[in-house]
Amino acid sequence: MNENTSGKKILSLVLLILGAVLLIAALWMDFSKTYIVIHVGSAKVALRGMFLVVGALMVLAGMYFIPTVMHHRAIINFIFLFPLIFTFAVTVIIPMFVGIFYSFTDWNGVTYSKMVGIANYTAMFKDPAFVWSLLLTVLFVVVNMILVNLVAFLLALLCTTKLKGVGFFRAAYFLPNLIGGIVLGYIWQFIFSNVLTTIMNSTSMLINTKTAFIAIIIVYVWQYAGYIMLIYINGLATVPKDVLEAAQIDGADAMKTLFQIKIPMIAATFTICTFLTLTSAFKQFDVNLALTNGVGTVRGFMGQRLSNGTQMIALNIYNTAFARDQYGYAQAKAILFFIILACVSLAQVRISNKREVEM
Amino acid sequence: MKKFLAIVLALTMVIALAACGVSTESAAPAASSGDSQAAAPAASGGIRLFNGKIEIANALNHAAEVYEAATGKHVEVESIGGGVDLQSQLKQYYQAGNMPDIFTCEGTPDFSNWTGMMVDMADQPWAADTEAEFIDSTGATVGFPYTTEAIGLAYNKSILDKAGIDPKSITGPVSMRAAFEKLDSMKDELGLTAVIGWYTTAKELYWSTGNHMFCNYLDAGLARNDSTYFDLMMNEGKLDLDRFTNFAQMVALFNEFAPADTASGNYDNQVSGFAGGKFAFVTQGSWIGASLTDQYKDLYAAAGNFECGMIPYAFEEGIDTILTNPPSHWAVFKDGNVEDALAFLQWLAGPDGQQIMVQEAGLNSPFASCTVVANDPFAPTITEFTAAGKTSSWHFLDQPANMAEDFTGAIFQDFAAGSINTEEFIQDMVDTIPNAINQ
Known about the structure:
The structure holds two protein chains of two kinds. Chain A is mainly alpha-helical.
């Protein structure tokens, strides 16, 4: 037993050291841009990548063979979790910190020349175009949260009645959600600019800021209501039949059943749907881009004439980075956007948890 | 048993991981030319050209085929255009380590993104053959001119002939209005939907209004090295009110005789309308010539393959120049396949390349030694103005990159839609331009 443990100890040590050496070698090759390719038969194998993968595996194996009873389970847990944690770190955690770092620089997308401290963060509140986008987005979110839920709930009620062809209608209402936002935006641009103008003999809705904003809301509700409708349909299906029957026997009419029984019974569904519409409306980008690209005139806002009357915050951030080359500034806006979204989502989850407990 | 199972599972995972790792890595050298080009030889020996001018995509692809047949070197042409932001696309490529070997830049702001990353091409033979190359602030020749383009008021000669209007007689605001009114009164018999294809949709055409039309205020009628009004705008944020008022009145004239969907139509409506003989004039430059003979050739043929020409945007009596410049240049990425890229550009500037670039792409050669004559509808008119020395250079490429998109484009749209009048248009421009300059 003792011999076995010491054998394991040596094996584990050798693997750990070898793995570490290979990892360091791979990193060194990456930083110094040394590029070595070996030929295995007809295939070319890059040594750097080979070193990295084999090194990482050796370290993991070395950890597995560490002769400990106490921590063995923890190590196994780590090894199995490692691929996910690593992927998550590379794609989410590290970029987020790099992003926060860039928001303090004057990065232009290619290089940065200096740190600017919190200048990016203070500048955005003096920028009328950004403040407008922020306020507009809040308005958009509020209007949409109400409209989408209202329309979706009504559609859900309609689609749970015993009409003929209900299945067809469900699918039809859901269909817009399957079309990408960009495509939708262009389709509706055509409808607003070419079809409706011909039918009604008027100018396009997209020319005027106010009507263009309404146009975005129409398209968004059209796109999203079907999706939310499905969730409501599911919610309505969970209302127990016996309760409904009892209500019917007690003489409750349809309205009473709806307001006194169905709606309270699916309160949880309402919170889920409110949450979904809230966050997705906040992040509205594709329809906005394809339908108006943010164009719209606003007069006398914070003493300026703005040309981005229909520009939501996500599009504003995108344009700041890609049209104005102010990547650092855009990054700062994005961080603010992230904070707002995080706060809203947390509040929403808090509230919904509370209500579910009460039920 | 449990332990055995654990080991088997662990091994499966390890093998799976190793398999993924090795296979992706062995494929890497060919694909990731971006992050380790220093020592990596270009796997295919080919180059990639990022073309920002979608109109000439077909001709460029053909040029690449001919070049490959002649030299065995592959050239991949990637064409993007129609309002796509080329620089942001390029930056994404750069971040992803997928930078093209030759890429498009339009003017100083674009080139300054890549300072120090472009090859100085002053020693190339073609550089001695042209005056249109882009030279940056350090004196390095970083931009290859592949064409020159012209901005002027394009007209359909057969329609003007039928209406009995000599384009040369339009020399100022009064004669322009007279011609427009005459055409408007004959709209039905000439088959016109509007006198002038003037579209202002800011979402789609901000570059046409905020850059091309606006630069006539900046440059029309001036000598090639004269940048008076541009300097006034950039340095002091000011417009010359007299000149701008005249310019605004010309725009008002265009609005009056524009199609009904002037504020909501798109580029396609505009160019296909002109190609189909629905407009007597159109406010697009010489680049639409290639579209007439390629993309819209059926419409153009149906309208009788009419002759085209250009007149100056004469918003003041005495403005007698059209604007000509290379619209953009091609730069060579320093860490790319420089040798092959330079060879391809030199070939393109030579007789074989120019043959394709001029005749098929309908480009106007910026090279003095080029003897090929373009069959582009606008080529004769450009040659005529150039020979007479009646051209001005344009400066909109040096204004803030987003000026038209984020500031002035929407004002042109409002003006055309009728939500502001001429005085308000002038006032809006005067108020907005400092914001664009000082952003």
